[in-house]
Fold this sequence. Notes:
The protein contains three helices and seven strands; from the N terminus they run βαβββαβαββ. By secondary structure, it is an alpha+beta fold. It has a seven-stranded mixed sheet with strand order 1-2-3-4-5-7-6, sandwiched between helices.
Amino acid sequence: MSLNYLPVSADLEFDCTNYETISQYLMQAIEATLAMGNPHPWSGYLGVTKAEVVVGICAFKTPPNENGEVELAWFTFPPYEHRGYGTQMATELIRIAQSHRDQVSRVIAHTEPARNASAKICEKLGFTLQGEYDHPTDGTVWYWTRDLA
Length: 149
C-alpha cells in the first residue's frame, strides 16, 4: 500500500482513522521532529495511507552539512511494522534528497548495531555499512552511507 506524505509543521492539522491506536507514539514523534527545527524540505513527514491511517514518521535529522550529507531517520509505529512502510518512508527521503542534488551528494543513516528491520532497509536501498560509531546521544550505532547517483 503506497503512502502519502504530510509535512510536519507547528500548524499541522490532519485527520486519521487510527489516532487511538497510535496516539502514544504520534505526539511524541511530532514533538521530537518539531524540536529539530529544520526548515522545509529538511523536516519530517507523516506516512499516511489512502485510508487516512498514519503508519509512521520519517525525517531528515538536520539540513545538509558542508560535505553535502544529510541524515535520514524513519520510524514505523509498532502496529504497522513489517509491512514495507519503513522502506517506503526511507525511499521518500532519498527521493527528496535526490531532488536537491545541488545541496546533497550523500545520505547517511544510523541504526542499532544489529541486523534489525532498519539495517535490512539500509541494505535493500543500497546503503553501505561503514562500521560502528559512538554517537554522542544514541550510543553505539551502525553508520550507513549511500552516495546519490
